[in-house]
Amino acid sequence: MAEVLGDAAIAARLTELAGWERTDGRIHRSVTAPSFLTGIEVVNEVARAAETADHHPDIDIRWRTVTFSLTTHSAGGLTAKDFALAESIDRIAAQHDAT
After folding, report:
1. Sorted alphabetically, which InterPro entries does this protein's record hold (predicted)?
2. What is the CATH number of the domain that holds 14?
3. C-beta separation of 71 from 78 below 8 A
4. pTM of the full structure
5. What sections of the chain are H helices per DSSP?
């Protein structure tokens, strides 16, 4: 099982991730895609990355805005897995000009 990170470690990791915030034991970020279909492409690529990592985000789609929410349910908090997937989400979003 992945180790739950402490508050100091979480705060430090968040400084490395633009646009991500911590709320209620999760980190989350919303991105706005240039079009609805581009937003869906981002979601599809994130889904593939999540499946490969065996770590799945909660995803909310509202027209061109996609919100990703991460926590490690099995560990009961935030772990390194969440931050690794957040970095992947950021790369995927940037490739599609979703900001």
Report:
1. PCD_sf, Pterin_deHydtase
2. 3.30.1360.20
3. yes
4. 0.95
5. 7-14, 36-53, 80-95
**Whole-angstrom Cα distance, residue 59 to residue 15?**
22
The CA-to-CA distance between both ends of the chain, in Å, stands at 32
For strand 58-62 and strand 21-23, is the pairing parallel, antiparallel, or unpaired?
A: unpaired
Asked if 39 and 33 touch (Cβ cutoff 8 Å), the reply is: yes
Print pLDDT tens along the chain (99 aa): 689 999 999 999 999 999 999 999 999 999 999 999 999 999 999 999 999 999 999 999 999 999 999 999 888 999 999 999 999 999 999 999 999
Domain with 41, as residue range(s), is 7-95
With beta carbons less than 8 A apart as the criterion, state whether 39 and 65 touch.
yes
Name the domain count of the chain. Answer: 1
In-domain check, residue 86? yes
Helix (H, G, I), strand (E, B) or coil at 42: helix
**CA distance to 28, 76, 78, per residue, from 4 (Å):** 17, 7, 5
